[in-house]
Design goal:
Elements (H helix, E strand, L loop, with lengths): L1 H22 L57 E6 L19 H4 L4 E3 L24 E3 L2 E8 L2 E6 L18 H13 L4 H5 L7 E8 L2 E6 L5 H10 L6 H7 L14 E7 L3 E6 L6 E2 L2 E5 L5 E6 L3 H9 L5 E5 L1 H10 L4 E6 L2 E7 L9 H9 L3 H7 L5 E2 L23 H4 L6 H10 L6 E7 L4 H12 L3 E7 L2 H9 L8 E7 L25 H10 L4 H17 L3 E3 L2 E8 L3 E2 L20 E2 L1 H6 L2
Parallel strand pairs: 1-12, 17-18, 17-19
Antiparallel strand pairs: 2-3, 4-5, 5-7, 6-7, 8-9, 9-12, 10-11, 13-21, 14-21, 15-19, 15-20, 16-21, 22-23
């Protein structure tokens, strides 16, 4: 396996050097426009059936990412310091003046209206993986600053604010109680602030808001002019909006200075040295109790120290020497080497929330012909790649829907798929040649696959397989910035095919299927996509109807080969044995990265014994 990988990389390296030289003068990088929402197909077209199906190469079943056998839960201890090495620093402390994804301390200092239900995670019932920032649905969330919420009718939404929650004891707020006025202030802030990146990216959520009213000390009522946007509005304000005190805005205009950070969260930001370290200390007046130990008030640790270590090899060395407590996004080889060095490391493996795909333009020949798309799907040995290239440490059939517990109602594994779909993702080179001949390409054709350096090896694999059925694919590997500009350009600028990744964090929404979304690289209106999206949003609070439409959409996408989903490798997360109460989580709630620290604790005796 590894010899093949190294051989491919030698070939690819030469191509990368040439392509980078050619693309160095590419267009300036541009930001993508507003991501949009789900889609859903209508009636699928009649599928093809190969004449002589061959036996697939040992297909594997995608499984939920695994963790080591979980020992009996110990009684948590208070105190101690948790240290993590990060490859980057927080660069925003106010999600109305910067992307929330770059505010890594923000969701620990400033809470949201809801929180992922820790009791349903890997340490509890395991109904919710918490491994990625995926959309886990309201069923896997519990109230945070909103103790409860309800739609009293189609256009009226009420938030019941949790009582006895207090701001950090810092001026100018000085530890006062959180009230409905604070929630209404933040709703208005996101409603009217055109400097808020996530608000601008989801501006369609706010066009239908008629009024925001404070009913009493703990109740806020929002009235919508467009009831059909209720689901999207709720998702936005619960997922992206962190609650900030009005006094900060009155005194300073915003909360962009770290020293002005004041929230209600489990930690208080006490020090920040750009590109060096972030320090968060325990909030002694935090309101939440541990769902797994209901008499224990959170958080357990006294301090978090987040050290910026940009070089991965240096972070790995720091974990090996006990200088940091956790590391993530390791490739299989890196993780297995560390586990050989120290078998006491705890770990989990998981699939990224982005899935590699090859997209082809449906508006240009030959990819406008469904027979060509189906043929080239059958020409790639997906399961052979998993076995021979990734040593079994990968999955396929996980775009748009990954095989996580929270997506079990919409995920259909390969072996449970209809036969006419399965055959397209097995390895059938003879049938692929027949389909190409039927489409008018008995001798194959030439094409070009455009990508960036990090996907060069995967593209080399596809190129090798396609060559076996007569398709000669040139690889054009562009510098990352120029590639990003190309893939988000409209009208589309790539000639025929592009290899990149689709985000799987919101599988029910699936933005890449929408007409007006810049992740739709097909170049056409995908049949049923817009209608399906409207249906999904209309029935968002009716999970059975909503998820049935999502499954229908995914079946059609695979049957008609809208994209060529490729193989997604597992990545690993490792942590020290003295970090307890932790099971590999990353996001305790939708888009809530790095919000697990309040639940973990440090076994001081074990840490001392292992020095």
């Amino acid at each position: 396996m590894w010899k093949k990988k190294k051989f491919l990389w030698v070939v690819v390296s030469v191509l990368v050097v040439l392509a980078l030289v050619l693309s160095a003068c590419g267009p300036k990088e541009e930001e993508p426009t507003t991501p949009t929402t789900p889609t859903t197909p209508t009636t699928p077209t009649t599928p093809i059936t190969p004449t002589t199906p061959t036996t697939p190469t040992k297909p594997t079943t995608p499984t939920t990412p695994t963790t080591p056998t979980k020992p009996a839960e110990e009684e948590p201890q208070y105190g101690g310091e948790y240290i993590e090495g990060w490859g980057y620093a927080s660069i925003t402390f106010d999600d109305c003046h910067g992307l929330h994804t770059m505010g890594h301390t923000l969701k620990q200092t400033n809470e949201r209206l809801w929180v992922g239900d820790w009791g349903k995670g890997p340490g509890g019932t395991n109904e919710y993986s918490m491994y990625t920032p995926s959309w886990a649905g309201s069923v896997n969330h519990a109230g945070a600053l909103a103790e409860d919420w309800e739609f009293v009718n189609a256009d009226t939404f009420i938030i019941h604010v949790r009582p006895s929650v207090y701001w950090h004891n810092k001026p100018p707020v000085n530890g006062r109680e959180l009230t409905a006025e604070d929630i209404a202030f933040n709703l208005d802030l996101h409603q009217d602030n055109d400097r808020c990146p996530m608000r601008n990216m989801n501006s369609f959520c706010f066009g239908g808001v008629k009024s925001i009213e404070v009913i009493d000390k703990y109740t806020v009522r929002t009235t919508l002019e467009k009831p059909e946007m209720a689901a999207m509005y709720m998702m936005y304000i619960f997922t992206f909006m962190t609650i900030k005190p009005p006094e900060i805005y009155a005194d300073y205009g915003n909360m962009t200075d770290w020293e002005n950070t004041v929230g209600t969260g489990p930690f208080v930001l006490t020090d920040y040295v750009p590109d060096q370290v972030m320090v968060l200390d325990r909030n002694p007046n935090y309101w939440m109790y541990d769902p797994l130990h209901p008499t224990n008030k959170l958080p357990y640790i006294d301090r978090q120290k987040l050290i910026v270590i940009k070089d991965l090899s240096t972070r790995i060395s720091a974990l090996k020497t006990g200088k940091i407590d956790r590391i993530e996004e390791l490739e299989t080889d890196q993780a297995k080497t560390l586990l050989q060095v120290n078998p006491d490391f705890q770990y989990t493996k998981y699939l990224s929330h982005t899935a590699p795909v090859l997209s082809w333009r449906h508006d240009v020949e030959p990819f406008s012909d469904i027979r060509v798309r189906r043929a080239l799907s059958m020409a790639v040995d997906h399961f052979g790649v998993i076995r021979d290239y990734y040593g079994g440490e990968a999955e396929t059939f996980n775009c748009y829907v990954p095989p996580y517990a929270e997506d079990s109602d919409i995920y259909v594994p390969f072996e449970d798929s209809p036969e006419d779909i399965k055959v397209l993702y097995e390895y059938h080179p003879d049938e692929a040649r027949e389909l190409l001949a039927e489409a008018g390409y008995p001798n194959g054709f030439k094409t070009e696959i455009v990508t960036e350096p990090k996907y060069a090896e995967q593209v080399a694999i596809i190129k090798e397989y396609w060559a076996k059925v007569g398709v000669d694919a040139d690889m054009k590997i562009m510098e990352a910035g120029a590639f990003r500009s190309l893939r988000f350009a409209r009208p589309m600028a790539y000639p025929q095919t592009i290899f990149t990744a689709l985000g799987t964090a919101v599988p029910r929404r699936a933005p890449g299927y929408r007409d007006d979304n810049k992740e739709n690289w097909t170049g056409i209106h995908l049949p049923g996509a817009e209608e399906g999206y409207e249906y999904i949003m209309e029935h968002w609070f009716e999970p059975e109807l909503r998820d049935a439409k999502v499954r229908e959409r995914e079946e059609r996408a695979k049957r008609e080969a809208w994209y060529l989903p490729f193989v997604t490798p597992y990545i690993y997360r490792l942590w020290q044995p003295w970090v307890k109460g932790y099971h590999g989580e990353q996001c305790v709630g939708n888009q809530a990265r790095f919000t697990f620290a309040q639940y973990l604790w440090i076994d001081a005796d074990l840490k001392e014994a292992m020095k």
